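Journal club prep — side note

Before the paper discussion, L.F. wants everyone to see what a predicted structure for a comparable chain looks like in C-alpha cell form. Sequence:
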Amino acid sequence: MPGYLSPDELDRLIRKGRERSFLLVDVRPTGVYALDHIPGAINLPASEIDDHSFDADTWDSLVFYCRNGIRSKVAACIAEENGFPGDRVFNLSGGIAAYTGEILLDMPELSTFPKDMPLAELMERAVNLEKGACRFYRKITPLFEDTQAYPYLRGMADTEIAHARAIFNTLAPLVGDSRAFDAVFASCKGGFLEGGRSTDETLALMAKSCGNRLEAILDFALDMEFSAYDLYKNRGAESSGAAGDLFIALAQAEKTHIADILTCIDLVA
C-alpha cells in the first residue's frame, strides 16, 4: 500500500536525497504543470500512468503529487498495481497546494538536450553550459567582495569548471575525443546557462530587475540553479546509459550550488 510524504519531508528529500533515490511525478495536465511545478518533477498526467512502466531497479522510490493529493493517490495505487513495490511508492500529503518549498513557473527547457542528440554533441553542449554558469558567477562575485558570501561565490565559478572537466573526462573516451580539456573549455563561448537560458540575456535581466541589491541577486541565482536542476533531473529520468548517468550526476551537483546560495542568502540578509 502506498504511503505518504509530508511537504517538509519532500522538501528535505529534494535538498538532501540522492537523485537516484527518488522520482517525483506531477500527475496534473501538462498545461497546468507548465504554470507551476516542484523542481525536478517529471510530468505524467494521471490518465497516462497506467500506460507507463516505472523501473524499480532505477528508482528507489516514487513520489506522486497533484493539486491536493487526490489524483496522485490514485496514480500511486496504479503504479503499485503495475508492479512497483508498494512500500516504495508515496503520495504528497495535501499536494502542491500544501508544498512551501521552491516552485518553478515554467517548463524545463528540454530542447536544450534533444532526446536524439549524439553523445559527442551532448558532451560539447554540457561543457558549454558549465562555461556559461562560470561566466555568470564571475560576473556577480565582485559585487559580494565585502560580504561573508564572497568566498562561496568565488568558489562556485571554479566548481563550474570542475564540473565541465568531469563531464569531458567521463564522455570524451566514449566518443573518441582526444582533445585536451583546457583547449575545449577555452573554445566554448558559454552563451547559455544550465537551465537553457541565454547568459547575456540573463545577466541583463538580472541587472534590470535586481540592480545592486545583493539578496535579490542571490534569489535570482537560486531560481537559475533550480531551473538547471529541473532540466537535468527531467532529462535523467528519460535517458539511459552514459547520458542518463550524466544528467543524474549533474542534477545531484546542482543541489550543492543550491545549498551554497541559500547559505549566501543567510549571510547577506
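L.F.'s comment for the group: The mean pLDDT is 96. Keep this in mind when we get to the figures.
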